[in-house]
C-alpha cells in the first residue's frame, strides 16, 4: 500500500531521519527504503513534517520485526501516546504493571508509562498520575509542526483534540487578534500565532502559563503571544472590542464566561464555543446561551456545528463556530 514518506537524497538521509525521529514523526510500522539515490522515511503525520522536507506517497514494506505490547501480553492494551509517554487507565495494579512492562519492553519509542490515578479535578483540571515507568511526568508533545513541553501532573492537556485544534488553526489569517480564554500550555495559542496572528492566552493555572511562555519561545512566536495568569473575567475588560477570534475550550462551563467573550469581541468576531450536551440536542443549549449573551448588540450566525468526540454515554463534546457581527 502507498504510505506517506519524506524523500531526501541518500547523503542527507541520516540528518533528515534524526529530525523526524526527534519530532516523533516516523511511522514505525514500515521499513525505511533506499531507491535511485533517495531515502524514503515513512511518516505518521505528513501535515506535521517541516516545510523544507518533501513528502511523497509510495509503496513500502511493512516492518515485520517490531515487537508490540500486544505481542508480549497476549492481548491488545489500551493506551494513549503523548510524546514518548504512554497513558493508561487501569484500576487493577497487576494489570497496570504488566502493561507498563510490556510497553517499555516493546519496540515502540516510549520511555514513560503513566496510569491515571484520579479524575480531572479542581479549577485547573489536573489529575493525579501513577508513574509506572520513566523518570517523571514531564513530556514533550509534537502536533502539526508545533512542540509543547508540559508536566501532566501540573497542567491539563488532551492529545485527543489535535485534529480539532488544527481545524480551528487553519481558519486563522495573518494579522488577526486571537483571544484564548482557557489557554493551558498553548495548544491553540501557539499554532494560531504561527499562522501570523497576535494571540492573548489566559489561564488561572500559573504552571500552565509558565509552560505557555516556554512553548511560545520554543516555537518562535514569543513576540506574538501574551500569556496572562488570571481569571479571564478580570482580564476581558482590558481587551474590550479587541478580538477577531475567541476560543472558549472549557466545555463543562463555557456558558459562564460568555459575557466576557462578548466583551472581548470586536466588530466582526468568530467564537469557537465548546460544549458538552446530551445527544438529543447537542447544539441548541450553546446557541441559545450565545444568543442570550450577544444579541441584540451583535448579529449571531452559527457557521459550523461540529461533534468533536463522544464524551460519555449519550453525551457529546461539540463545537459551535459562531460569527458575531456588530
TrEMBL record:
Name of the protein this chain belongs to: Class I SAM-dependent methyltransferase family protein
Gene3D superfamilies from the UniProt entry: 3.30.70.2580, Met-10+ protein-like domains, Vaccinia Virus protein VP39
Organism: Haloterrigena alkaliphila
Keyword match Amino-acid biosynthesis: no
Taxonomy of the source species: Archaea, Methanobacteriati, Methanobacteriota, Stenosarchaea group, Halobacteria
Ranges of residues in domain SAM-dependent methyltransferase TRM5/TYW2-type: 79-326
Chain coiled-coil ranges: none
InterPro entries (alphabetical): MeTrfase_TRM5/TYW2, SAM-dependent_MTases_sf, TRM5-TYW2-like_MTfase, TRM5/TYW2-like_N, Trm5a/b_N
Presence of the UniProt keyword S-adenosyl-L-methionine in the record: yes
One annotated GO molecular function: tRNA methyltransferase activity
Recorded superkingdom: Archaea
One annotated GO biological process: tRNA N1-guanine methylation
GO cellular-component term (any): cytoplasm
Entry keyword set: Cytoplasm, Methyltransferase, S-adenosyl-L-methionine, Transferase, tRNA processing
Pfam family, any one: Trm5_N
Amino acid at each position: 500500500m502507498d504510505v506517506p514518506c519524506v524523500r531526501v537524497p541518500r547523503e542527507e538521509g541520516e540528518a533528515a531521519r534524526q529530525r523526524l525521529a526527534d519530532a516523533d514523526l516516523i511511522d514505525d510500522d514500515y521499513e525505511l527504503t533506499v531507491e535511485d539515490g533517495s531515502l524514503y522515511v515513512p511518516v505518521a503525520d505528513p501535515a506535521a513534517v517541516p516545510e523544507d522536507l518533501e513528502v511523497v506517497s509510495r509503496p513500502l514494506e511493512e516492518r515485520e520485526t517490531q515487537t508490540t505490547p500486544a505481542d508480549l501480553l497476549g492481548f491488545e492494551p489500551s493506551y494513549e501516546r503523548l510524546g514518548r509517554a504512554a497513558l493508561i487507565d487501569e484500576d487493577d495494579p497487576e494489570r497496570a504493571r504488566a502493561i507498563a512492562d510490556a510497553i517499555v519492553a516493546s519496540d515502540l519509542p516510549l520511555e514513560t508509562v503513566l496510569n491515571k490515578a484520579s479524575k480531572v479535578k479542581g479549577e485547573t483540571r489536573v489529575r493525579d498520575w501513577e508513574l509506572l515507568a520513566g523518570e517523571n511526568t514531564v513530556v514533550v508533545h509534537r502536533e502539526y509542526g508545533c512542540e509543547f513541553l508540559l508536566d501532566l501532573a501540573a497542567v491539563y492537556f488532551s492529545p485527543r483534540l489535535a485534529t480539532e485544534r488544527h481545524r480551528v488553526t487553519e481558519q486563522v489569517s495573518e494579522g488577526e487578534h486571537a483571544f484564548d480564554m482557557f489557554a493551558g500550555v498553548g495548544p491553540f495559542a501557539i499554532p494560531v500565532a504561527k499562522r501570523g496572528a497576535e494571540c492573548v492566552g489566559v489561564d488561572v493555572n500559573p504552571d500552565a502559563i509558565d509552560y505557555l511562555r516556554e512553548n511560545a519561545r520554543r516555537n518562535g512566536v514569543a513576540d506574538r503571544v501574551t500569556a496572562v495568569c488570571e481569571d479571564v473575567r478580570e482580564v476581558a475588560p482590558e481587551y474590550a472590542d479587541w478580538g477577531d477570534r475567541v476560543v472558549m475550550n472549557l466545555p463543562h462551563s463555557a456558558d459562564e464566561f460568555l459575557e466576557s467573550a462578548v466583551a472581548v469581541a470586536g466588530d466582526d468576531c468568530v467564537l469557537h464555543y465548546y460544549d458538552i450536551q446530551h445527544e438529543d440536542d447537542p447544539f441548541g443549549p450553546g446557541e441559545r446561551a450565545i444568543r442570550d449573551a450577544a444579541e441584540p448588540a451583535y448579529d449571531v450566525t452559527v457557521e459550523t456545528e461540529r461533534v468533536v468526540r463522544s464524551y460519555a454515554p449519550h453525551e457529546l463534546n461539540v463545537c459551535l463556530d459562531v460569527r458575531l457581527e456588530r
